Amino acid sequence: MIYLNEKEAAQFHIKNTAIALGKFDGIHLGHQLLVDGLLEEKKQGRNALVFTFGFAPKEVLEGSIRRCIYTAQEKKQYFESLGMDVLLEYPFTKEFAAFTPEEFVKTCLVDALDVKAIYVGTDFHFGKNRSGNVKTLQELGEKYGFTVHAISKKNMQGEVVSSTRIRTLIEKDFEQANVLLGNPYFIFSEVVHGKHLGNTIGFPTINQVISPDKVVPAYGVYASQVTIDEKQYFAVSNLGKKPTIAGEHALGLETFIINYEGDLYGKMIKTQLRTFIRPEQKFSSVEELTEQIQKDVMQVKRLYGI
After folding, report:
1. Within its chain, how far is the Cα of 277 from the centroid?
2. DSSP secondary structure letters along 240-256
């Protein structure tokens, strides 16, 4: 998959594209309906392109900061696994926000990307002051020669599946957030060196740093799965700040991978958090911590039927 960051996106040209437009923060069940449309277009020989923004519109226009469900790096990994050909992060600037709907379509989609089909949600708005909508897009499609597919919102439990809803659920009802995501919440980041305590107590772990911009669930222990060289392993992960270990620790994810041996330092690893096991705890001794880890591992093994 081709990934174009903000600087590259404005200079890039590609032919014969089918494009899904949106913020794609959570890449949830609603977003996956758009992806399914692109996969059908891909069968017809078109390039499946996801068009998103380097910065969320509210961050640029209002100066507000909102944590993301998935970082740009995580989106890249996920969209590639879904079979997309191009992920384009267009720079959302105040100048870009001043584009009229037709200027956006002509400049960004027709001239630069040779768009033949567009997939959006039925509530899609674009252009200066959000003045363009699906009807506008369809009229411009007739003018410039592309089709528009407006996909209805996905509803579950009587509510629309949205990134805003999922962002709240990640912190309050993690299992339900995973249901709406359609794929377990994950962290994709480099394996870094930790204190190496796990090696001394019989539970060697990998450590991953978590972006401060990322929304995270409750600190604690999770049944997880780790992907290594396209193979999945069951695991036990602790999300938090290691309260038992002396000193100040940044938020991180520490994972014991069941039935795996190998050096993963420096590798980019995807760790999916599937089920919450217990809250993070501070133990009075390393021995007490070791005993609890043994219990956690046994619980995860029972959960997965290992």
Report:
1. 23
2. E--TTSSS---SEEEEE
Q: Kindly report, residue by residue over 252-281, the tens digit of the pLDDT.
A: 999 999 999 888 999 999 999 999 999 988
Chain segment 161-176, per-residue pLDDT in tens: 999 999 999 999 999 9
Helix axis angle, 174-181 to 163-172, nearest 10°: 150
Report H helices in 150-213. 163-172, 174-181, 197-200
Structure tokens at 301: 């093994």
User: Is 74:30 a contact under the CB 8 Å cutoff?
Assistant: no
Rounded CA separation 252/247 (Å):
14
d(CA 190, CA 58): 29
DSSP 96-112: HHT--HHHHIIIIIIIT
Query: C-alpha angle 155/161/165, rounded to 5°?
Result: 135
- pTM, two decimal places: 0.87
Q: Which residue has the higher pLDDT, 180 or 8?
A: 180
Which of 34, 145, 11 minimizes the C-alpha distance to 88?
A: 11
Cα distance between residue 165 and residue 201, in whole Å: 40
The terminus-to-terminus CA distance of the chain in angstroms comes to 35
Are 135 and 122 spatial neighbours (Cβ–Cβ below 8 Å)? no
> In the structure, what pLDDT confidence band is assigned to residue 295 with cuts at 50, 70 and 90?
very high
The upper half-sphere exposure of residue 41, i.e. CA atoms within 13 Å in the direction of its Cβ, equals 27
